[in-house]
Amino acid sequence: MKYRLGSAAIATALSLFSTAHAQQGDGTDVKITTNVFKPNKVQPTSDRIGQLKVPDGFKVQPFAKGLGNSRIIAVSDTGDVYVSRREEGDVLLLRDADGDGTADGAPIQVASRAQAHGLAIKDNRLYLVTVKEVFVADIKEDGTLGELKLIIGDLPDAGQHPNRVLAFGPDGMLYISVGSTCNACNESNAENATMLRATPDGKSRAIFASGLRNTIGFDWNRQTGELWGLDHGIDLLGDEVQPEELNRLEQGKQYGWPHVFGAGDIYPQSTPVGGLTKEQWRDQSEPMVIGYTAHAAPMQMKFYSGSAFPAEYQGDAFATMRGSWNRNPASGYEIVRIHFENGQPKSIEPFLTGFLSDGGKTHFARPVGLAVAKDGSLLMADDTNGVIYRVSHDGDGKKAAAAKAAPAKPMEEQAAKGVGVPLAKDRPETKTDKTLSVSSDAFASGGAIPQKHSEYADGVSPGIRWKAVKGAASYAIVMEDPDSHPIMPFVHWVAWNIPAGVTELPEGLQEQLRLMEPEGVMQGRNSSGTHGYFGPKPPVGDPAHHYHFQVLALDAVLDIPATSDRDAFLAAASGHVIGKGEHVGTYGQTVEPPKQ
Questions:
Q1: In the CATH scheme, what is the homologous superfamily, with its name and number, of domain 419-587?
Q2: What 3-state DSSP class applies to 65?
Q3: pLDDT interval class at 384 (50, 70, 90)
């Protein structure tokens, strides 16, 4: 089925697959030819499995069959294999006690939760993520699980990409990938299309990286400790567009979606909110490091950590490509090897192919789950015919050395930025002899902040006013909590380029990078990873925290991107501060909020 889209039809056709808020009448004229092509499913007969292709010295065999919608794989330190099944809503346990490369007997159901998907294992505990919840359970000696306990219950609602995945980083923190709700749109929930970083108990989390359409596959380089992820490209832009993206994921970085993709190409339909141009969005986004065939649909990704493969695979990663539905010929339906040299990716190339059959008209597997087994083989889950395949190496020659755990320092250093520093008003970047008066109708100086301004309730910003300072070209606000832990001070709000004629901000400002009212105000990244005001959210039972609303008068308008954080703002403001003042409020939460 082929669509040929002319200038008059492009917006209409794309809107069938996207809820983006397009700016009309901007002169866009794009012609796209795309395909909807879904190879027929056939059975995984021994003849078809025998036609699978892997490099010399490798072999492929079924590890387990008849598993249904098998999705994500996790392997424990003892070698137990866990696989989630989304459509069945459960987790299965498989064991290979005799070491013959096939599972012993029938699988055992060890957990049951609707939309069960991502799995992670840490300290002999299994973590399971559904669409909105994260559960944890102790792993018993026989591999079965203890009681599942809810630790997160408020992940964003699902949409086009409901399949959450999670993994523990070398820093001991839990990373959760939350896909977008759409093909390309401005999300209303800032946690969609992101990578989240959470404490293992689930009590606090922040957006680690954003602009990620659907990064199901991610892992840490065992040599460098850097986080790498494969992001799904935008659909319906043609057979060769958009490439699947390999990104180096870093705290606070934005990766383009929904307005920019690949090496910096601009998506024709969508429009950023707040009056930002697509060129500005591109300038503040990270381009992909390497691309792969469009629409191949990357899934689970793992750096090779075993010692059974040849030495040339040491330091490399593998990823499953589930396969396309809108490309002809079809792409994906394979495992790829991501070749790294000195910790940096050099190429992405097919490793296990042949699941497409009959000249590409049929398929007998759609690869999803991927894990390194205890014996160093690769295990791959097919969610179409319910087979787990095992890829092993029987050849001679030098073997890879078992990889050590990824170093924690790179992730810890990113998390430590801006932590343990003085409040903005006490830093040398804001030095000035001029004091300005700051007040709020919502709460008195030193008084309690109403609950509606907290994240436990409405989370709306309070109205703030200040006295004008002669010579000011702009004003800025930095709101910080010095009583927070472990992020101290916690940045709740950073906004700059408030026009010189404005000395008051109303209640309930938009939570986006750039404001339309007051025009041109930029709102940077706070400690939650969002943009705009993030209300008080101290732990329940803590003594009331102090929230410092600091207003700075500047003799300049700053030219820094909206993705800047407090430290980047202060660096740009240094030498331009001609007045400062603050208004302090307190907030404590004594009652546990209702469970989601």
A1: PEBP-like (3.90.280.10)
A2: coil
A3: very high
